[in-house]
Amino acid sequence: MEALPITQPAHTISLFVNNKPGVLSRVAMTFARRAFNIESLVVSPAVEGRYSRMTIAASGSVETLEQVVKQLAKLVDVVHAIDHTGEDAHETEIALVKLECALDQRTQILQIAEHYKAKVVDYGTDSLILQVYGGSEKIDAFIGLLRPFGITELVRSGKLLMARGRQIT
Amino acid sequence: MVQCLEREGVEYIFGLSGGAAMPIFDALVDSKIRLILTRHEQGATHMADGYARATGRPGVVLVTSGPGATNTVTGLLTALMDSVPVIVICGQVIAPNLGTDAFQEADVTGITYPVVKHSYLVKNAPDIPQIVREAFYLATTGRPGPVVIDVPKDLSQGPCEAPFTDEVDLPGYKIPLRGDPAAIEEAAGYLMKSRRPVLYVGHGAVISGAGKAIMSLAEKLRAPIVNTLLGKGATDETHPLHLGMLGMHGTAYANKAVTDCDLILAIGARWDDRVTGKVETFCSDAVKIHVDIDPAEFNKVIHPDVCIEGDARLVVEDLIPQVDVLDTAEWLERCNKWRKQYPLKYPKQGGLRAQHVLDRLNAITRGEAIVVADVGQHQMWAAQFCKTRANRHWLTTGGAGTMGYGFPAAIGAKFGQPDKKVWAVVGDGGFQMTQAELATAQVHDLAVKCLVVNNNYLGMVRQWQELFFNNRLSGVDLEGNPDFVKLARAYGLKALRIRRPADIDRILTEAHEYDEGPVLVVAEVVKGDNVFPMIPGGASIADMLIEPPKGKLEKPVGSA
Ligand SMILES: Cc1ncc(C[n+]2csc(CCOP(=O)(O)OP(=O)(O)O)c2C)c(N)n1
C-alpha cells in the first residue's frame, strides 16, 4: 500500500450549522486562518431543513485543532462543533474510480474489486468505473492496489461520520 | 430600517452617503436620529467605536456600497480586535445586480468575514426587522463585536410591512454568564494558598463593569492589581493596591510583580504577546487562573490551572465570598519598594518632553477626563502618565493598533458623553490619517480637545530603528508636516501651541476650560525621545529595559 500524503495528524470534525448563505465561507476561513488543510468536506441537509451538517476531515497539529474547533463553535451560525478524532464513530466514504484497462488486465482488476465489494458501474471497451464504499483506510488500500493499472480519474465523496448510540454527531 | 434603528434606541448615526445608501439617508431626514456626516468612512467607524467604548451602547455607521463599505474595514478590524459593539450598515447594489460587477459593487460580506463578529446580507425586505434586532443583540452581548448589515438598494427603497420583533433566532449563539461553581471553588482554593498574588485586569473587566467587584476582591485579599493597556479604568489606577499597566511599555513595578508572583488571576484579559513577552518564561512558576467570556481564549497562549468561562463581573462577585484575607504584607511591601525604586520618570530640562505634557494633562484633568489615545509613543506615554480612575475613561486601539483612531474616536466619545471632558492624544503621524474630521468636530461645535504630540517622526518606529536597527532610519521622517495650528485654524478651530515646558500648564488649562467648540493643542516636543521601560518584542519580562540601554541590542524575535 502506498503511503498517504498526510504528514500532519488527521481529524474528523462534525458541525451542525444553520442552513444560511455564507456559513461555508466562514467555516472554510476559520480553517485557512490557522493553516489547517481541509482534506474533505461534506455538506448535507439535516433532519430539519433549517440546519445543515458538515463533516470535515482535516489535518494539522492537535493543539491548533482544539483552537480551531473552539473558533468554529464561536461562529454565530454554528450550533455545535464536535471533534470525533479517535472516537469509535461509524465512518464511511464512497469512491468512484475510473481505469483505462486492456482486456488482459480485467480479470485481475475484477478480482480486486470483488474482494473489496466494489461494484462495476460502467463497463466500456477500454475503461471501467468502479464504485466502492467503506472506511477511508479501506478505500485508500483499494486505490493503492489499483494504481499500478492506471487510474485515470478518482472521485471520493469525502468522509461521512455518525456517532453511535445516543451520542450526538 | 430607520424605524428599527429608532426602536433600538439609536441616538446618532455616523456616516457618509452615496447612491446605494440614498433611500436610508432619505429616511433619516424624518427621523429623530441625528446623522453625523463624517469626511471619511474610516472616521465614521472610529467615531461609532469611540461612542460605543465611552457609553457601552452600540455605535452605528451608515455608508454606501463599494468604496464606501471598504473604507470601513480598518474600523471593523479595530472594533473586532477590542470587542467593541459597532454596527455598520452598508448600501449595496440592487439585488438583481449582485455578482455582476455592477457600478460600485463590492462583495462586502465576503471582504468583511474576517473582521466581523457576524454579518448579514439582506435578501428580502421583510427580514429587515429581524436582522436589525439580531445585529444589535449580537453586537452587544457575550463578547461584543462589530456586525455588518449589507442592504441592496431595491430592498431599502421598497415597502416593508413586516412587524417589529424582539425575538432573536440564533440557536448557535450562547452567552456565558455565571461561572461554573466548581471552577470558582477551585480558583478560590488556589487563591487562599497564595502569598504573592496579582490580579491582571483586561478589557473584559471594562466591558462587563467588573471594576467595583475587582476592587472589593483585591481589598479583601490584599492583592495588588495590574491592568493591560485596554484594562485601564476598570479599577482606579491611583489606588494604593494598583501597580499600573503591565507589558511591553508597562511600569517596571507592574512587570516585576508579575515576574515574581506565585499566582496570577486574569480577569477579561487574553495574555496578548504585548503582555507576556516570551510565553515560555512568563510567570512560569505561578498558578494561572483565567476568567473569560470567550472560551476560545482558553489554552490559546497559556495553559492556565483553572479556566472560568463567564462574565467577568459575575465571576468575580461569586469569587469574593469564597476567599479571605491573605498574608500578603511582605509581598505588598516588595511591590511598593519596586514602585519607589523604579518610578516612571523623565527629564524636565533639555526641551519639551511628551511625558511632561501628559503628566501635566493628567494633573490638570485630575484624571477625570475621557482620554482617547492613538497609536505610537504618545499612546504609551499617555497610558503611563494619564492615570485612569473610572471605567470607560480611557479609550485606545489595542489589538489592532490602528493609527488614525484617536481623533475620530474622541469625537464619537464626546457625542456619547457630552457632559464629560474628552481629550484625544495623538501623534503627528496618526493625526494626519484622519485629520479631515476636524471639519466634523467644527460644524457641530463639539467641545472635543485634541493634543497633537508633534515629534516630526513616526516616533515609535523610529525608536525601534534606533534601538534594534543601528539607527538606520527608514521611512520615519515626517518632513513636510503642516503647521498644525494653522491647519486647525483653516478649519475654523481654536488652536494653541506649546513650545516650552513653561507653556504647558497655561495652554493645557486654557484648552481644558474652553467649552464652546473643538480645540487643538500642538505640543512641539523633542524629536528623538524614546519610551521606557521597554520589553523588546518576544523577550522575557526579566529582560525589561528600564532605562535607555548603553550598548547595542539584538533584533527582537517577536513581532514588532
Ligand atoms: C495604520 C497604521 N499604519 C502603520 C502603523 C505602524 N506604526 C505603529 S506606531 C507608528 C508611528 C506613529 O507615529 P506618530 O503617529 O507620529 O506617533 P509617535 O509614535 O511619534 O508618538 C507606526 C507607523 C500602525 N500602527 N497603523
Explain what this protein looks like in three dimensions.
The complex is a heterodimer of chains A (169) and B (560). Chain A is of the alpha+beta class and 169 residues long. Chain A has helices at residues 23-33, 62-74, 103-115, 136-146; strands at 10-18, 37-45, 51-59, 78-83, 90-100, 119-123, 127-134, 151-156, 160-162. Chain A has four helices and nine strands. Chain A has two domains: 10-83, ACT domain (Alpha-Beta Plaits, 2-Layer Sandwich); 90-161, 2-Layer Sandwich (Alpha-Beta Plaits). In chain A, a hairpin with a 5-residue loop joins strand 2 (37-45) and strand 3 (51-59). Chain B has 560 residues and is α/β, with parallel strands linked by helices. Chain B folds into three domains: 2-156, Rossmann fold; 181-341, Rossmann fold (3-Layer(aba) Sandwich), CATH 3.40.50.1220; 354-532, Thiamin diphosphate (ThDP)-binding fold, Pyr/PP domains (Rossmann fold). Helix content of chain B is 36%, strand content 16%. Chain B is built from 23 helices and 18 strands. In chain B, helix 2 (22-28) links the parallel strand 1 and strand 2. Chain B is globular and about 70 Å long. The chains are: A alpha+beta (169), B alpha/beta (560). Chains A and B meet through helix 1, helix 2 and strand 4 of A and strand 5 of B. Residues 374-378, 401-403, 427-430, 453, 455, 457-461 of chain B line the site of thiamine diphosphate.
Question: What are the key terms here?
Answer:
heterodimer, A: 169 residues, alpha+beta, Alpha-Beta Plaits, 4-stranded antiparallel β-sheet, 39% strand, elongated, disordered N terminus, B: 560 residues, alpha/beta, Rossmann fold, 6-stranded parallel β-sheet, 23 helices, 18 strands, binds thiamine diphosphate
